[in-house]
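$ ./design --mode recover --in tokens.txt
reading tokens...
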């Protein structure tokens, strides 16, 4: 998830945008690609009448789908014949001169350039291969191009593409920046912090060929790297938000924040990074770290308004999780398809609720006092305790002791009849020995009282006579100090008063 590929990714992102801006200039591409070369033209000049919108479609012709574009019309003409532009009606129409035949028609005020027309012809002759939306297409490694002007420095394959394109556009590359500027740029990019004067000085003095790479490796090894990379990810999860409603308190989510920082610093693979945040608690025997990772989907709004309907807000939070997952991992807005299908939306309403069903099993309402009571704001349940290293070690030790004790108790319970038979004779002998003169010894209560209000009068023989209020049901409290020694039982005798 990091290494120097992070820098290459930054350059590649910029390069793709650069190519897209200049696609209509210079020489034609070696191979015509639908998404890069043809779709933009169709979108601008064709789809209005032959695209997604069935109500606006004309001539029963649809060009945005390959299987539709290959169907013969009623006249027998085939819009697109893969590998044969001459027999393709689309090519005939875009090269036509008759105002009644030419496409796009004059009233649209759209006109294809000669270069665009040739791109269409070449694309069809090359097989008229369609491509899906770029967001759903797996990235493919392109063939490395070779620039003709070797006077320009090429240090990596990306430089080959940039250099070749600059040659086609008859542009010269910018001069290499000073080393002081270079270290400042890469330091800010990877850690968000400027380099120290000592770091700048060391880089300026390092004349080795790997000086820059050494700086990059040092920055990637810095704990500040994970903090820098985590900033955007925390924003995806709305980490800095408060509850957002009437009881607008804060929630404690810093253990998840620290997990994200560690994940970047430890170079966790992106598939693992994804799985643990979406479903870490569903993994076999999940660790506490994997459960903490699911905090990504606990940063939603939390409502504590008096008239809230818990089930309504529970559903709203499931929707929030679906939409956040789409925005973060798919780079798609899954908002409109919550309510309906849309002709331009690649995600259907059914697919929205298929993803909804996954999160519908979460035992949380997103309300204060929802499914499980939450007193005093903060994080609604379910929550987990996150001990620090010292607490975790102590907790593990106590859990080990408790487990060992539980195992010992289970073993002794199996031998309980045997142990009782061994214990009883000795206990009886000790009891008899201790009470040779008296088996029972009177206790002198320290306190005798009634919950119902009755009175107690002590008699000469040590007994208490109950009088006064005599409710149908009452509770008597008797407190007495017991002398040290062997105690085998307590006897309480109750007699009716003869008077």
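writing sequence...
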């Amino acid at each position: 998830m990091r290494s120097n590929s992070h820098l290459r990714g930054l350059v590649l992102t910029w390069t793709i945008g650069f190519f897209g801006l200049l696609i209509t200039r210079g020489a034609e591409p070696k191979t015509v690609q639908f998404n890069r070369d043809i779709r933009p033209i169709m979108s601008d000049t064709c789809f209005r009448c032959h695209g997604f919108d069935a109500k606006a479609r004309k001539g029963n012709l649809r060009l945005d789908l390959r299987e539709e574009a290959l169907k013969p019309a009623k006249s027998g003409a085939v819009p697109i014949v893969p590998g044969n532009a001459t027999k393709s009606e689309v090519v005939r129409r875009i090269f036509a001169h008759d105002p009644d035949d030419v496409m796009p028609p004059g009233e649209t005020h759209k006109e294809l350039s000669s270069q665009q027309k040739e791109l269409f012809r070449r694309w069809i002759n090359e097989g008229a291969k369609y491509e899906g939306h770029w967001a759903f297409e797996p990235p493919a490694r392109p063939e490395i191009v070779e620039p003709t002007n070797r006077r320009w420095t090429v240090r990596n394959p990306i430089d080959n593409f940039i250099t070749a394109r600059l040659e086609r556009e008859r542009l010269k590359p910018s001069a290499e920046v000073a080393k002081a500027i270079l270290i400042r740029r890469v330091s800010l990019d990877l850690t968000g912090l400027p380099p120290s004067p000592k770091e700048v000085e060391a880089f300026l003095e390092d004349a080795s060929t790997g000086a820059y790479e050494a700086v990059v490796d040092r920055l990637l090894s810095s704990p500040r790297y994970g903090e820098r990379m985590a900033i955007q990810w925390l924003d995806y999860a709305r980490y800095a938000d408060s509850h957002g409603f009437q009881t607008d308190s804060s929630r404690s989510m810093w253990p998840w924040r620290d997990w994200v920082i560690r994940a970047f610093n430890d170079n966790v693979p992106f598939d693992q990074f994804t799985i643990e945040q979406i479903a870490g608690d569903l993994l076999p025997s999940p660790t506490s770290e994997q459960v903490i990772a699911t905090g990504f989907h606990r940063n939603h709004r939390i409502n504590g308004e008096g008239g809230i309907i818990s089930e309504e807000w529970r559903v709203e939070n499931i929707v929030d999780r679906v939409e956040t997952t789409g925005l973060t991992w798919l780079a798609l807005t899954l908002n409109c398809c919550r309510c309906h299908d849309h002709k331009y939306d690649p995600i259907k309403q059914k697919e929205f609720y298929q993803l909804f069903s996954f999160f519908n099993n979460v035992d949380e309402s997103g309300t204060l006092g929802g499914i499980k009571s939450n007193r005093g704001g903060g994080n609604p349940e379910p929550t987990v305790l996150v001990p620090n290293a010292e607490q975790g070690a102590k907790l593990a030790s106590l859990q080990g002791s408790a487990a060992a004790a539980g195992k010992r108790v289970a073993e002794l319970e199996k031998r309980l009849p045997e142990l009782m038979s061994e214990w009883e004779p000795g206990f009886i002998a000790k009891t008899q020995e201790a009470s040779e003169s008296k088996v029972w010894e009177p206790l002198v209560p320290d306190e005798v009282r009634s919950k119902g209000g009755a009175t107690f009068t002590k008699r000469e023989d040590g007994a208490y006579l109950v009088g006064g209020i005599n409710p149908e049901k009452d509770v008597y409290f008797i407190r007495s100090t017991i002398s040290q020694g062997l105690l085998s039982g307590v006897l309480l005798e109750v007699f009716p008063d003869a008077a």
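exit 0
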